[in-house]
Amino acid sequence: MADKIKRVDYYYVQVPNQPGQAFQTLATLKEANVNLLAFTAFPTEGGNSQVVMVPEKPEAFVKAAEKAALKLSAKKEAFFVQGKDRPGALAEVFNKLATAKINVHASNAATAGSAYGFVIWVKAKDVDAAAKVLGA
């Protein structure tokens, strides 16, 4: 399996940093049969958490979120990378961006068996340049 890199839309919601808040968001999406490519949650200021979601089908995701009265952020862009797991797989992608002097703002990666996947975020001003460098 060759690595696949694609430009993706992502959204986030702010929820109270309390048990069950991420579950409620995910359950809402499950009920609407919305699939996510990636999900990340982390605490922010003021006792809240930011729940970041990369939907497989953004239009269906937005529709489900609106129906459930989730307060989505504006649409933002990132890159979703997946391929066969191997030593240095992430370094190869990071090297392309570093060589082009594009800073990685954030990233989140995981493996599942012999495959890996990760989301990589760059500043909005760098998205087009990163897409060109990554072939996305």
Provide structural commentary.
With 136 residues, the chain is of the alpha+beta class. It folds into two domains: 67 residues, ACT domain (Alpha-Beta Plaits); 58 residues, 2-Layer Sandwich (Alpha-Beta Plaits), CATH 3.30.70. It is built from four helices and six strands; from the N terminus they run E-H-E-E-H-E-H-E-E-H. It has a six-stranded antiparallel β-sheet with strand order 2-3-1-4-6-5. Strand 2 and strand 3 form a beta hairpin. The longest helix is centred in the N-terminal third of the chain and has 11 residues. The mean pLDDT is 93.
Tell me, what's the shape?
A: globular
Total tally of structural domains: 2
Summed over residues and divided by their number, the pLDDT gives a mean of 93
Strand content: 35-45%
Unreliable segments of 5+ consecutive residues: none
Task: Give the CATH superfamily of the largest domain.
Answer: ACT domain
Helix/strand order: EHEEHEHEEH
Name of the level-1 CATH class of the largest domain: Alpha Beta
Helicity range: 25-40%
Question: What's the total count of β strands?
Answer: 6
Strands in their spatial order, largest beta sheet: 2-3-1-4-6-5
Number of helices in the DSSP assignment: 4
- The CATH architecture of the largest domain would be 2-Layer Sandwich
- CA radius of gyration is 16 Å
Helix/strand-derived category reads alpha+beta
**Largest beta-sheet characterization:** 6 strands, antiparallel
Instruction: Quote the CATH topology of the largest domain.
Output: Alpha-Beta Plaits
Could you tell me how far the N terminus lies from the C terminus, measured between alpha carbons in angstroms? Answer: 17 Å
